[in-house]
Specification:
The structure holds 2 protein chains of 2 kinds. Chain A contains 16 helices and no strands. Chain A is an all-alpha fold. By secondary structure, chain B is of the alpha+beta class. Chain B folds into 2 domains: about 5-50 and about 130-175, Alpha-Beta Plaits (2-Layer Sandwich), CATH 3.30.70; about 55-120, no CATH class. In chain B, strands 2-3-1-4 form a 4-stranded antiparallel β-sheet, with helices on one face. The radius of gyration of chain B is 25 Å and the shape is rod-shaped. Chain B starts with a strand and ends with a strand. The chains are: A mainly alpha, B alpha+beta. At the A-B interface, helix 2, helix 6, helix 8 and helix 16 of A face helix 1, strand 2, helix 2, helix 3 and helix 4 of B.
Chain lengths: ~475, ~180
């Protein structure tokens, strides 16, 4: 090490140990100052379209408000649910939204532990997506209870009724899993955010902004000791969140698998659901990221290489999902359970929901095959279209899974179809709008590209001489 | 502990502060500290920062507390307070407790990891003594500060040496107790 480094130091000098592939993740060498200015100005001087977009999304969210109010005031009879199809849209939406959340934690936790440098540009984004998706997910079981104002009955508290939640029920596990997941995701997100909030505090020209961001930065100063603690705690949280993300959707799947309904009662459900969750979540990350990187001109931070890697993960999880479908059908075929066979070999592919079934196969098993092509993986338009297709497919999969099993279980006498109502559609649309609204607010007020992590990556790749 | 002085030097890049920290340590200075906009693992090594054992121990304790508490609640409600015979299954059915025990242990660990990271770093705080140095706020953006503590007399050659190492400026202040 040369101890007589001078002020006119040549910067950046490429680190000989950084490979070309790694350097491509940050193709444009930028000084700390330039990176700070560029990324924080997205927050301090928001683009003109953002305010209008927030207004529109906020306005559309009123659909959710109206649908929720109507449901709560009237009762869930306004939904299309019936007996035997008691879960229908509500639980479909719950499972879909919660699955979307899983990609955020996967990116932040698993990829951190695996030291994947490409996660740096997109992790904050994906984590925020997780939080907002969980908010939407949580709404549905609450409403589905019928009397959501008694939600606290799910929590063990000493009541005069003298009864307790039934902890042997997978529905109670679900409450614990989802609330833990939300809390841990929030803590993980916020811990990573604190240094960036401190950067906004120290960068903002206005006093009021310094104050507000200062409060949220909790007085962070990046002493080496604080950084060491932060770095290690972040790693520990990632280590905790990684098994958590697997456990949460496993537990969600047990809501089904522990039941005895044909098409649900299967040991393949936990891994099948986890793969599906991460699959739909990666699709949602792409749906959000592709427009954002273009509108904010972030092509040098979220590069085509990033999209390419995301697309490869879509391909992997899509293949896992296809495998799970195949195993499910194969097991029904060789298993010898008449009800299981009837459901998986008759009702789903040939019954009244057959168009849905084949659409699911086309969206979830067929469309990702296009990702074998490098050209598709590097085309933003194709990826965007694919990401929407996959999300549609995953939503339909949950609907098909829930409604087909419930509508045709053991007694043909009680077989019953299902039709959603306008309120069902309004709730789904409303959560989509509300999700966009929250996400746009996040883009408006939070440094959505992890600034400090990006600077650290820049230093790691090019900063050492 | 009054009377101890601390010299602070401002650097423009991470590699400069790293080189300066190494040089100062080679000169025999032990009480070094640094403020940087992003974590630099090598700098932590040069400053000889210990492994945060307390933090890790607290996280483990948090996990045990979370899981333990959950088990106590489940066991007490199912066995003592409200025993419910479901098809003759055992009241204390540990296997069906596993999901909740795991989630609760995770929750306990994550909450303590978060709280301990802030708490051990003295956060949240409203004011930091170094904020008095003008321009110190850039330590969270693009400037790197290295501090040396002196018990008695400050080495008169040090400011010059720091400037030679690339310091943009050198500040002299009272060391925090």
């Amino acid at each position: 090490m040369t101890a007589s480094a001078e002020n006119g130091v040549v910067w950046p000098g490429p680190d000989p140990s950084a490979s070309a592939e790694e350097l491509a993740l940050l193709p444009r060498a930028q000084s700390d100052r330039a990176l700070t200015e560029e990324l924080l100005n997205h927050v301090l001087q928001p683009p003109p379209w953002l305010g209008r977009a927030i207004l529109v999304a906020g306005g559309l969210s009123s659909v959710l408000l109206a649908a929720v109010l109507y449901t709560v005031l009237t009762g869930i009879g306004v939904w299309g649910n019936n007996i035997p199809v008691a879960w229908a849209f509500g639980i479909t939406n719950f499972v879909w939204w919660i699955g979307i959340g899983h990609a955020g934690t996967f990116i932040s936790a698993f990829l951190l532990l695996l030291e994947q440098k490409w996660r740096t540009s997109i992790n904050r984004f994906a984590e925020a997506m997780t939080l907002f998706a969980l908010v939407q997910a949580g709404l549905f079981p609450l409403l589905h209870m019928g009397r959501p104002w008694f939600f606290y009955w799910l929590i063990p508290y000493p009541s005069t009724m003298g009864v307790w939640p039934q902890f042997r029920s997978s529905l109670t596990w679900d409450v614990v899993a989802v609330s833990t997941y939300f809390t841990v995701s929030l803590l993980f997100w916020y811990l990573g955010l604190i240094p960036d909030l401190a950067a906004v505090r120290d960068f903002a020209p206005e006093r009021w902004r310094r104050r507000i961001y200062g409060v949220f930065a909790l007085g962070w100063h990046g002493s080496a000791a604080a950084w060491r603690r932060h770095r290690i705690a972040y790693g520990v949280l990632a280590g905790i969140a990684a098994p958590l993300v697997v456990s949460v959707h496993s537990i969600v799947s047990m809501d089904f698998a522990i039941g005895v309904l044909p098409g649900w009662h299967s040991t393949i459900f936990p891994p099948y659901f986890v793969a599906g969750a991460i699959y739909s979540g990666f699709a949602m990350v792409l749906t959000l990221m592709i427009p954002a990187r273009r509108l904010y001109r972030l092509e040098h931070v979220i590069t085509r290489d990033h999209l390419d890697k995301m697309a490869k993960l879509l391909l992997v999880t899509g293949t896992l999902v296809t495998y799970a479908y195949a195993v499910e059908i194969y097991c029904a075929w060789v298993g010898g359970d008449a009800f299981e066979r009837h459901l998986l070999l008759e009702v789903r592919p040939r019954g009244p929901m057959a168009p849905l079934f084949w659409l699911v196969i086309a969206c979830n098993c067929g469309s990702p095959l296009l990702l074998w092509s490098r050209r598709v993986r590097r085309s933003t338009l194709a990826l965007f279209a694919l990401s929407l297709t996959i999300q549609l497919g995953m939503w339909l999969e949950r609907l098909m899974l829930i409604v087909s099993s419930e509508s045709a279980d053991f007694l043909p006498a009680i077989f019953h179809g299902y039709r959603p109502t306008l309120i069902d559609g309004g709730l789904l649309f409303g959560t989509l709008a509300f999700f966009c609204f929250l996400f746009l607010l996040f883009l408006r007020f939070v440094p959505f590209i992890p600034l400090t992590e990006l600077k650290a990556l820049e230093f790691e790749l090019r900063g050492r001489k | 502990m009054s009377g101890r002085t601390q010299i602070w030097a401002e650097f423009a890049t991470g590699s400069l502060v790293l080189a300066a920290a190494r040089a100062l340590r080679d000169l025999g200075h032990r009480e070094l500290s640094a403020f940087t906009p992003y974590p630099i693992p090598e700098l932590e090594e040069v400053l000889e920062l210990p492994r945060p054992r307390l933090l890790l121990a607290l996280v483990l304790a948090g996990a045990c507390l979370g899981g333990g508490l959950a088990f106590l609640i489940i066991w007490w409600t199912a066995v003592v307070s409200y025993p419910l015979n479901v098809g003759g299954r055992p009241l204390n059915s540990f296997v069906t407790d596993i999901p909740i025990l795991f989630e609760s242990a995770v929750l306990g660990a994550a909450a303590t990891a978060f709280a301990a990271t802030l708490g051990l770093s003295g956060l949240p705080r409203l004011h930091h003594p170094l904020d008095a140095i003008s321009g110190f706020e850039r330590s969270s953006l693009d400037r790197f500060w290295l501090g040396v503590v002196f018990d008695q007399e400050v080495d008169p050659d040090l400011p010059g040496a720091l400037q030679e190492l690339g310091a943009l400026r050198v500040h002299r202040g009272e060391a925090a107790p």
